[in-house]
């Protein structure tokens, strides 16, 4: 699902350490890899580009096919949340619509970082139920 957001200049205000921390916390709870990709200068079809990035990042190569990608094009004021087939078969499209709406509502309040962190936390809760982290 491609979602639009309304605020410009958000890319300058991204707290990458906070996003990295949210991803690290998520990956301590689940076996699913989570990536956030920002495309500051973007042309083309967002979803197709996000799907190519998903493949290029190796998110389709996980044993349980449970990778997640948040792909953001701030200059276009759009983002896509993609989940691989392993998670999608459990949660369905309504879940992704819910995640996108949750991220979008935070971004519309003016905080891209908070939107992404909230999205990561939302998918993590579901991923932990379906794909809990197994101690090595």
Strand composition percent: 5-15%
The helix/strand series, from N terminus to C terminus, equals EHEHEEHH
CATH-defined topology = Diaminopimelate Epimerase, Chain A, domain 1
On the 0 to 100 scale, the average pLDDT is: 87
**Stretches where pLDDT falls below 50 for ≥5 residues?**
1-11
DSSP E strands, number: 4
The biggest beta sheet, please? 4 strands, mixed
The strands making up the biggest β-sheet line up spatially as 1-4-3-2
Global outline: globular
Terminus-to-terminus distance: 35 Å
Our count of helices gives 4
Helix content: 40-55%
CATH class: Alpha Beta
Structural class: alpha+beta
The whole-angstrom Rg is 14 Å
Q: Name the CATH architecture.
A: Roll
What is the total domain count?
1
Task: Give the topology, please.
Elements: E1 2-4, H1 16-29, E2 34-38, H2 46-56, E3 68-73, E4 78-83, H3 85-108, H4 112-130
Parallel strand pairs: 2-3
Antiparallel strand pairs: 1-4, 3-4
Helix pairs in contact: 1-4, 3-4
Which features would summarize this protein structure in a list?
136 residues, 4 helices, Diaminopimelate Epimerase, Chain A, domain 1, 15% strand, alpha+beta, disordered N terminus, four-stranded mixed β-sheet, globular
Outline the structure in words.
The chain is an alpha+beta fold and 136 residues long. The chain has one domain (2-128): Diaminopimelate Epimerase, Chain A, domain 1 (Roll), CATH 3.10.310.50. It is built from four helices and four strands; from the N terminus they run βαβαββαα. A four-stranded mixed sheet has the order 1-4-3-2, with helices on both faces. The radius of gyration is 14 Å and the shape is globular. Residues 1-11 have low confidence and may be disordered.
